[in-house]
Design brief:
The complex is a heterotrimer of chains A (430), B (241) and C (296). Helix content of chain A is 65%, strand content 5%. By secondary structure, chain A is mainly alpha-helical. Chain A has 2 domains: 133 residues, no CATH class; 218 residues, MetI-like fold. In chain A, α4 crosses α6 and α14 runs antiparallel to α15. Chain A starts with 8 loop residues before the first helix and ends with a helix. With 241 residues, chain B is mainly alpha-helical. Chain B is built from 7 helices and no strands. In chain B, α1 runs parallel beside α3, α1 packs antiparallel against α4 and α4 runs parallel beside α6. Chain C is globular, with a radius of gyration of 19 Å. Chain C is built from 11 helices and 10 strands. In chain C, the strands form 2 sheets. Chain C has a 6-stranded mixed beta sheet with strand order 6-7-8-3-9-10, with helices on both faces. In chain C, strands 2-1-4-5 form a 4-stranded antiparallel beta sheet, with helices on one face. Chain C is α/β, with parallel strands linked by helices. The chains are: A mainly alpha (430), B mainly alpha (241), C alpha/beta (296). Chains in contact: A-C, B-C. Chains A and C meet through α14 and α15 of A and α3, β6, α4 and α7 of C.
Amino acid sequence: MNKKPQRDIKTIVNASLARRHAAERRFRWYGLIAISLGLVFVVLMFANIISQGYSAFWQTYIELPIHFDSAVIDPEGHRDPHVLENADYAALIRASLRAQFPHVEGRRNLRDLYNLVSSNAPFRLRSQVLDNPEIIGTEQSIRMLASATVDTFVKGNIDRHIDESLRSIKNQEIAWVDQLQASGQLKQRFNTILFSKGDSREPEQAGIRGALMGSFYTLVVTFLLSFPIGVATAVYLEEFAPKNRWTDLIEVNINNLAAVPSIVFGLLGLAVFINFFGLPRSAPLVGGLVLSLMTLPVIIIAGRAALTSVPPSIREAALGMGASKLQMVGHHVLPLAIPGMLTGAIIGMARALGESAPLLMIGMVAFIADVPGSFTDPATVLPVQIYLWADLPERAFVERTSAAIMVLLAFMILMNGLAIILRKRFERRW
Amino acid sequence: MPISHDAHTVKQFDVQLANLRNLVLEMGGLVEDQIQNAIKALNDEDVSAAREVIARDQIINGMQVKTDEDSVNLIALRQPLGSDLRLIMSLSKIVTDLERIGDEAEKIARMAVKTYDGDNNPPSAKLLRDVAPMAKQATTMLHDCLDALARLNVEQAIEVAKGDDELDQEYQAALRRLITYMMEDPRTIGQAINVLFIVKALERIGDHARNIAEYIIYLVKGKDVRHINMETLVQDALKGE
Amino acid sequence: MNTTTIEVQTTLDSTPSPSIRETSLSSAQIIGYDHQQTVGRITVDNPKMVCRDVNVYYAKKCALKQVSLDIGTNEVISFIGPSGCGKSTFLRCLNRMNDTIPICRVTGEIKLDQDDIYDKSIDVVQLRARVGMVFQKPNPFPKSIYENVAYGPRIHGMVNGKAEMDELVHESLERAGLLKEVESRMNEPGTSLSGGQQQRLCIARAIAVNPEVILMDEPCSALDPIATAKIEELIDELRENYTIVIVTHSMQQAARVSQRTAYFHLGNLIEIGETDQIFTNPRHKLTEDYITGRFG
């Protein structure tokens, strides 16, 4: 038996020590690799979106001397607003462009020339004249939106060296743009249209304001509905409801609801809110209702978790003082749980902000050029706008899609950041 | 509640309590020997044996100090309660009485030395006639109460307490007889007084044994039976069975 | 005590008095029903609370069996016993804290003065204002020191106006021996105090509503010896005005603070008696084994 001398504990432990340390190091490496991979993909995604989208925040303008010819605008000289409104402002631009490039001839070439300027330029002139009829008869240097093709070319997204037939901008157009650039008439400015206009068929005139306002109205409805209902449900289930089969059933169902695919909520919204209650299609009100349904389980689950994390000693203390149950919850438990509940709500909101599928079902996917002004106006939301733009082939829409994604991501980060700040700020030590 | 014989959760506590009790019992044994040796030295007129008894009293004193020290340590370190507390308190009081008994044995031995050392006239057998039975009674009482302590036997302790009354009566009788002798023959007064001291010591031994018996009743029954008459003592000691 | 001790056996004392909450379970259905008679005198001359035949069931498990006990006015009574013996369960019956546990059921009779506290006419809010409680872990509300003490009087509407409230808060803190330490920082959170101070704050909070009885559930188990000594001193002072029931794991503490001690074992009240008698000469073997450390 005792052939081998008993090894002491030190040698026994030392023998396996190297192996144990190696296992620990290996495990740490796995973790590091996993995190690095995740980070790489995040960086790739951001790099891709930003590299594609940053140029959308700049827009090319063409500055042209416009002669506000009274013969064209107001031949009778009455300054009649109706006449001013219906005048042919495009002719002014055409004249200016012809003056700028006098050698261009032929219908087709002239049309190309006129297309350098965005189609909304005449409206801009009109509004200027309506605002200030004094300028009729004078010559003003007016800055006008360049067309999307020019904008794309100026931003360097079209290679001028490839064959003419393969690019959307013709050689002569390039020559004009070069000339305008040389004379300093081509300017790049911050793209305010992106943030001040609704959707448009013309990329240079398309903005996300409509979608942003749509998202805002939708989220307001969602928050106003889901937060109070969610908190009330969580408090009732956690603090007041008896623990029996029914409450167990409700709990299971709430947990299941959180896992239901969001498109199902869209179908439900369509069937109930639009078809049954007859609420308007495409409205933020309905979108908010649908997203509330989707967000509620998240808020309830987060709320219950926040309530359970309040130590029982606080409840006992309150009850022991003779507080009623509602006083216990209202004075002590809820104030301690509210930061956690808000965090859950904000994360739920962030999820609702990024949701598109259920909204497709209730018609928030329509092309809507107007910025919605109320809860019942037809509207679309940011993610749906992204979805819509992503379908369009123009290069200018591609960059706007990325820009919209960046704005959406910025809001998400903002909301999550807010959640963290709230948690840190109001978290109590006990 | 009678004393429990179950083991403590802390085994070391059991060991320490057992050690303390054994130390006291050992001391009791030693004291018993001392009395017997002193009486034997008196009977045998053996001065050197008597001196040995006197010398050995130091050992008993040492044991008393040791038990007290152990008791204090046990109280400080284990915070005994209930029967453990009563055991320690009783033992520490029993030790005091044992030490006194040891002192009485030493006293008897000193008397033996005084009586038989040198050219003093030894007392006549007449004067010493009460010493032997009283000594027997006292040693029996001590032996029984140590036995009762070892077995925590209340009945035995009661018997010991009762025995003290008999011993007191014998002492009274011996005292009367000695006074009679002294009145008959004043020359014997010196010797008679020595004998008186001896019987007084034996009577004191009986008192101490009774004290020990009372402590044993307290230890086992939790009833303080000191300073009450025998009837109540017996009643109290046997109640609550 | 020079009067002769009356040995009352609980089963005799509590004749089959019609229990208000009659149990429908037969004893065979109840798990762990094994009632033992209590040793010692359960009655006192001047009782504040009278408990008779109290049973507590968790679902079908019997956690407390036929406990009958008087709690005297202005006395400190301590409950001792091993973990799970039912002492805390019994304590929590006295202010109906067990109501918060859905599966918990209490039968028998508990009277505070003349009121049956489990009677329908007694609201639990009113009861808990009369029977305050201090818990094992100091649990001040995560509010200011002032608010902690003011909370009880506020919810019960005991004071009118800020000045009266200030006075009451100061007085309560003073009585809890905490005023000097916190006077300058009444608006700091109660949780910023040390453990012992927090516990005294909880006591101040409890006495702010001027209860008749204060229940303490192992109030010093989380405290160091000095803080413990301060609480014990406080208990001794509070005895003048309040009846105090204290559950403790420390036998030394029970011995130090209480006049009477009750020993619980497996849901039975085994023995009740004067504290000095319990700790020097317990009558029941289980008590003896517990206090001398022979248990288990």
